[in-house]
Amino acid sequence: MNNIFDIKRFGNYFLYDLRRAKNNYGLSLLLLGLIPVILFVAYVLLSLIGLLFNSHANGIGMMPDGMKFAAVFTTIFVVILGAGAKIYGFVTEKRAGSDFLMLPASTLEKWLSMVLVVCVVLPVILFALQFVSDGLLALIFPNTYGSSLASFIDQDFIDGISAGLMEEEGLYINFPAMMFLSWCQNVLAFTLGAVCFKRGKVGKTILCLFGLGILFSTLMVILVGNTNIDTDQFVSFFDSPEKAFSAANWLINIFYIIVIGGLLGGLYYRLRTIKQ
Question: Is the pLDDT of residue 227 over 90?
Fold first, then answer.
């Protein structure tokens, strides 16, 4: 058992992995986490330039909320695509990959550390940086930056996602869990691509996902055919709407279990079979 997992050895390796991740992606993550500040500075500068050419302007207007939300989603998209390749892409390199194999840790410990870094550490640091920078801008420049993104999450919204329950329809949706699972699903896919492909890691991963999407769609067409199943038909198949929504939730959970489980298994298999 000690050769497979040792808590002290794993702790040392995890700290080493965090330092390496900071060296490889720390600056990029910092810049992406400060996107609200960078975007605000760019908005102010462009507005000042506009004032020079428009004598009728009264001043710098309030920054549109749509820009803030677009920046956040774009940042998440960029991190999901590039973090795995930047942090663990070295595994496919001959010299660096050989050094990785010689590290005093088991495959399970390396795999677990990798999963924790991309699925837990990355989103926590990214969202913490964005939350703090967005909140400070809203506090310091309320008339130009406007409200923070957190202010859009009112008490009703918090109650809704905390309970995850639409009582009038009997539908249970755990939105925070779904967001976390979606993050894991996507970031693990691109991390797996990073440790499988030697070149063009992101591009080849996207092509593989595109190909799998086409294959899955083709199989669904073959299995389902031209059958059109609307919401009413789906609900009527069960005895009650509650049972129909419960079945839908089970299908969603099974989907995440299969996809994330497959990605975790593929990542472990790749680390176990790496040869330089």
Answer: no
- Secondary-structure percent of the chain, ordered helix, strand, coil, rounded to 5: 80, 0, 20
Give the 3-state secondary structure of residue 225. Answer: coil
Contact criterion met (CB below 8 Å) for 147 and 63: no
DSSP secondary structure letter of residue 89: G
Q: In the prediction, which pLDDT does 155 show?
A: 46
Q: Say if CB 63 and CB 143 are below 8 A apart.
A: no
Q: What is the CA 171 to chain-centroid distance, rounded? A: 25
Count of alpha carbons within 13 angstroms of residue 264, beta-carbon side = 15
Instruction: Say how far apart CA 15 and CA 121 lie, in whole Å.
Output: 12
How far is 161 from 235, CA to CA, in rounded Å?
24
Alpha carbons 31 and 38: distance in angstroms, whole number: 8
Residues in the chain: 276
State how far the Cα of 225 lies from the Cα of 213, in Å rounded to an integer: 17
Out of 108-122, 195-209, 245-259, pick the least confident.
245-259
